[in-house]
Amino acid sequence: MSDIERESMEYDVVIVGAGPAGLSAAIRLKQQNADLNVVVLEKGSEVGAHILSGAVLDTCGLDKLIPDWKDKGAPINVPVKKDNFLVLGPAGHLRVPNWPMPPLMNNHGNYIVSMANVCRWMAGQAEELGVEIFPGMACSDLVFGDNGEVKGVVAGVFGLEEDGSYGPNTEPGMELHGKYVFISEGVRGSLAKEIIAKYDLQAGRDAPKFGLGMKEIWEIDPEKHHEGTVTHTMGWPLGKNAGGGSFIYHLENNQVFVGFVVHLNYKNPHLYPYMEFQRFKHHPEIAKLLEGGKRVAYGARAISEGGYQSMPKASFPGGALLGCSVGLVNVPRIKGNHNAMLSGIAAADAAVKAIAAGRSGDELAEYEDELRTGDVAKDLKKVRNVKPLWSKFGLTASLVLGGFDMWVQSLLGFSPFGTVKHGKNDAQATGKAADFPIIDYPKPDGKLSFDRLTNVSFSATNHEESQPCHLKLTNPDLPIKVNLPEYAEPAQRYCPAGVYEVVEEDGKDPRFVINFQNCVHCKTCDIKDPSQNITWTVPQGGDGPNYPNM
């Protein structure tokens, strides 16, 4: 749309995404130089509306950014008091004792939090320092400079025609230019994906890997509530069908976060991650906790699981990738928010030095060096083999091998395995439907388990229906001609929001239908589609889920 005339605004640093990484960068920039002009653009209707995380927070990143966060009223109030690790079978469980766990797996000193609320608080801290934050501003395009560098973004396009064209009521948005542009969109963001491809930032790095995390908030019987208790489970119901597990975190007000993660490198295309989550809640150990309670919220998002060896180069001409745009989750700890914050701090420090030296639009090599060698690298390198070992050898063997590897690295500083490769990406890992059994899932009972569309209503998701579909098919024929006969069209199952369906009517050919209004912006379709035919892009600003305190 180079022929579209837009107004432009100039900043020192433009930040896309008001998550922990982007907000940390904004705060750090203003702490280091109060005169810098910094803007944060957030596609959600408000800061926190699109934030979904477990979350048990390691505060090391926040300690570095705002050491007096307690005195400043951060919504971080529930310290972890008890850690449980369970391996589930169909009817029972085995508790894994805490003593053989590597020290890094200990959650004491961490806090159970709503990262949506933490981000809302961080946004307030940023605004007090003079950061401009614009929610409801989806960034749909990049702006490039004369030398091919990223110069800015296009934000705030509204009212496109259904076919994507500009009509009489279209607001063309604005260009926001910066000396540097930070991309902190979260997992598999559309701008980050474009940047990684344009500058070949994945070259020499392992394949990116992902999981799908689904989460419900429950209010439970006060007698069953144990504030500060953290429970992680593995095993049933996934078994050998897929890697993954659950988390159950007891926060305040008799609420628990109940979450379920499925690694997206599963082979059987008949697997239905959402229904695995719903089935999980019927395990006797889980059911007795939730019975008599009520679910009050639901959401889902992809999780970066590739770790250290999968991180793309984080600096590019004109800016940097932050947080989950790089993939900084420590998989065995199920934590990434601390690394997201540390990445934002590091990027800000590099940009402050560059701007002070009169630079702009170049690569922040200092940031890339810090990510690969500093605190984030130290956190991720020692766990880099856990996920690929799990994928290659299964749950039981990986518990032993992964635990051994983490212990050796903690004590001796090296891995006996070196660096284990991930192999195929998650789309390539999908097998043919004819080679795997169909999985029979029990019908949700409406008390502990729920159908997808009912649960999506608890995410407060909304999209203006007259806009173009933000889920783009490279080839509209592939879902029916290829994915349906070869893979039983897994989009019907891997999407946790019921966006995709194959409609078969008497006497008519099947149709592939995209109900984009349901989309909770998890990006699973962009990752898992076996034909890599779906590209997730941003809808107009403010659309999508409206998470209260995920």
Structure explained in plain terms:
- With 550 residues, the chain is of the alpha+beta class.
- The protein has a domain at 8-70 and 116-205 and 312-382: 3-Layer(bba) Sandwich (FAD/NAD(P)-binding domain), CATH 3.50.50.60.
- 26% of the residues lie in helices and 22% in strands.
- It has 14 helices and 22 strands.
- It has helices at residues 20-32, 60-65, 115-128, 190-198, 273-280, 284-290, 337-356, 365-373, 375-381, 386-412, 452-456, 478-487, 491-494, 524-528, and strands at residues 7-16, 38-42, 56-57, 78-79, 82-88, 93-95, 111-112, 132-135, 139-144, 150-155, 174-183, 210-219, 229-235, 244-250, 255-263, 294-304, 315-316, 319-321, 471-473, 500-503, 511-514, 534-536.
- The strands form five sheets. Strands 1, 2, 8, 9, 10, 11, 17 and 18 form an eight-stranded mixed β-sheet that branches.
- Helix 1 packs parallel to helix 7 (337-356), helix 7 runs antiparallel to helix 8 and helix 8 (365-373) packs across helix 9.
- The chain starts with 6 loop residues before the first strand and ends in a 14-residue tail after the last strand.
- Accepts electrons from ETF and reduces ubiquinone.
- Its cofactor is FAD; [4Fe-4S] cluster.
- It catalyses: a ubiquinone + reduced [electron-transfer flavoprotein] = a ubiquinol + oxidized [electron-transfer flavoprotein] + H(+).
